[in-house]
Design brief:
The chain is mostly helical. It has helices spanning 2-7, 12-25, 30-35, 40-58, 63-84, 91-114, 130-149, 157-181, 211-226, 230-259, 261-269.
């Protein structure tokens, strides 16, 4: 993938992913087709099979692999919008679908624009980890079961709205961090300093040492507040706190190795931004 991406024209992956994301999101037109006489299930089947067949005709690997992922995320986003405006107890799950699909797609898009040298299919973060997948599945199961047995729990709009605000804040902060860091941002903690690696202390990095982690922290918890998932809400908070505590310490060891006293001075001035996490301890 890295070799193919290097030979592709600059920005081609970004344009390809955006076009196919919008293709998937065109499922928003399904209500119009339904009013025109097309049955809902038939129309949905066409929106699942049609774009996939089109992409198979237009692209070959690895571009097809990019296109099908972006198209799928666009489809999830479009379905989420439709569900959000439905008169059912699932409308807040529609908010969640939009948030989840936009998060994963924008991770790829911003990387393609901002740091194309590190771009790969993994930039979608769809295969982040087994733990991430289990956590997502658990939240879907909790929402479904509670929606069946206690549907009124899923209609506390002010709580869902608070979760949505957390998601928007977290997403905006993370993407601002990615844009500010530029080519210094990578989804994988770097153990070796590249020639272009510099210490970024401006923009959102003047507020927090790890703004991308702060954004993801509040985004992930916000998704569960949005879903009114009490069990996953608590478990997410504990799990992501532990994850980012360990991740922050791991990254700061590398940063101290890369930048020495410059990073130590920055570390004294600026907090991590994560609650009750101070980063790696430095013995004097």
């Amino acid at each position: 993938m890295a070799g193919c991406a290097a030979r592709a024209p600059p920005g081609s992956e970004a344009r390809l992913s955006l076009a196919t994301f919008l293709l998937g999101a065109s499922v928003l037109a399904l209500p119009l087709l339904t009013r025109a006489g097309l049955q809902g299930r038939t129309g949905l089947a066409l929106y699942v099979a049609g774009p996939n067949a089109l992409l198979l005709l237009l692209y070959r690997p690895p571009r097809y692999q990019i296109a099908i992922r972006a198209c799928f995320l666009g489809f999830v986003f479009g379905c989420g919008v439709l569900l959000s405006f439905s008169q059912s107890s699932w409308n807040h799950f529609g908010w969640y679908m939009c948030s989840l699909s936009l998060f994963h797609y924008s991770e790829y898009l911003v990387t393609a624009v901002n740091n194309p040298k590190s771009l790969s299919l993994d930039s979608f973060l769809l295969n982040h980890s087994l733990e991430y997948t289990v956590a997502a599945l658990s939240s879907w199961i909790e929402f479904t079961l509670e929606n069946i047995f206690w549907p009124e729990l899923k209609q506390i709009t002010w709580i869902s709205a608070m979760g949505l605000l957390m998601v928007v804040f977290g997403e905006c902060l993370r993407k601002a961090a990615m844009f500010t860091a530029g080519s210094n941002f990578n989804h994988v903690v770097q153990n070796e300093k590249s020639e272009t690696h510099t210490l970024v202390t401006s923009g959102v990095y003047a507020w927090f040492r790890h703004p991308s982690y702060v954004g993801w922290f509040y985004w992930s918890i916000g998704t569960q507040v949005m879903l009114c998932n009490p069990i996953c809400g608590v478990s997410y908070a504990l799990t992501v706190w532990r994850f980012f505590r360990d991740r922050t310490e791991e990254e700061e060891i590398s940063l101290i190795h890369f930048f020495g006293e410059e990073y130590l001075e920055y570390k004294k001035r600026v907090p991590t931004g994560l609650p009750f996490i101070k980063g790696v301890k430095v013995e004097l």
